[in-house]
Each structure stands twice: as C-alpha cells, then as structure tokens.
Amino acid sequence: MYSSSIKGFVILASLCILLASGCAIKNKKLPPVPPEQRDLTVQEGYFYEVAPGDSVNIFVWGLPELSGSVPVRPDGMLTTPLIEDIPASGKTPSQLARDLEKLFAVYVRSPIVTVIVNGFVGLPTQQVRIIGEAMQPAAIPFRKHMTLLDLMIQVGGLTDFASGNKSVLIRYDGGQQRQYSVRLDDLIRDGDISQNVSLLPGDILIIPEAWF
C-alpha cells in the first residue's frame, strides 16, 4: 500500500515539474513510442488494485449480516461488521477477499468471501492522466486493452487550440521516466490509425497549445 502511495507521489511531483517546463517539452525532439510498446500484449500483466474512493461489495457466503457494500477510505482502509480497520488499497479483489476470510475466521467457521468492486477510482499508478488541450482533462482508471484513441474518445477529443502532433506521452518503464512523441492530429483529424498506441497504467498525456 505504501509503495503505491510513494509511486503516486513521484508521478504527481514529476507532473508538476513537467508542467513548469512545458516550453522545453514542446521544443524537444522526442522519439515515437517504440513498436514493442504499441502492441496490446504489453498490458497482459495488468490486474486492478483496490484504491481509496472505490466502493466494494463484500459477500460472505451464508452470512448476510456480514455482507454489504462499503467504501474504501482516503487512508486506504475499510471497515466491515466485526472488523474495524483492514488495509484494502493496493490489493486485488481476490487478495482482499482472502485477507477478510482470515479475519472473519476468528468469529465464524470457514468463511467464504467474495469481493466485487463497484465504483472504480484507481491508484495513481493505475490511472491514465490527460492534461492540456483536451476537451475534458481527467485522471481515468486504466482498463485492459486501452489505447490512445479510447482515451481521446473518453475525454471528448482535442480543443480548437490544441497542437495535437506535438503531444507528449510520459511513461514509467523500469522505474525510469521516458517521453515519447504522439501525433494526435494525425490520429483524430486525419484518421491515421498507425498513430494509435496501447496505453499502460500510469501514463501521462500532455497536449500543448498551438502557437499562432
């Protein structure tokens, strides 16, 4: 849980630095996303982890009094009947279910627990952020098989002032921050699907304003 929070802080701090040096990014010649990172197979190891703000439905087989929907608090903990505080953030639903079974076993015999996430917020390291000249800049929970085109549809496309072909994709690879050039004008306005790339959890897309 704490490692995920630290990663999220690092991403946010880096984002602030990048925004402060926006002119330098726009003028820097960046490489395109490499072919090995364009294919959807790079996403295969992704599993959703519970995040603060999520709503989870806890079902305990045969024990409706222990079942119900609960929110994950801002501190990453949740509370259920009989259990006041349990760390939830950073765990997959299955991992959280197994932890709950161990805790409920103190009170009931052989509990069987299922955890279903109803409302998705996503950890900072499992979100995709888009800022700048998008119609609706946002932080969006990453989903498997998500592409750049999917993201742009979700945020409503580019503004009239966007310099789409100078957009920058920031990606964390092996603990290192890398920057790639993406050509959103070619993708959205010209229909060049070759400019569509697969996204990864934690990606940040910066769309600069055009200079007239």
List keywords for this structure.
single chain; 212 residues; alpha+beta; Outer membrane lipoprotein wza fold like; wza like fold; 2 domains; five-stranded mixed beta sheet; three-stranded antiparallel beta sheet; 5 helices; 10 strands; 25% strand; transmembrane; sugar transport; membrane; porin
Structure overview:
- This protein is of the alpha+beta class and 212 residues long.
- It folds into two domains: 2-45 and 124-207, Outer membrane lipoprotein wza domain like (Outer membrane lipoprotein wza fold like), CATH 3.10.560.10; 55-119, wza like domain (wza like fold, 2-Layer Sandwich).
- Helices cover 24% and strands 25% of the residues.
- It has helices spanning 2-20, 22-27, 93-104, 148-154, 184-189; strands at residues 55-60, 68-71, 77-80, 83-87, 113-119, 127-132, 138-141, 167-173, 176-182, 204-207.
- It has a five-stranded mixed beta sheet, with no helix packed on it. It has a three-stranded antiparallel beta sheet with strand order 2-1-5, with helices on one face. A two-stranded antiparallel sheet has the order 3-4.
- The protein starts with a helix and ends in a 5-residue tail after the last strand.
- Mean pLDDT is 88; it is low at 16-24.
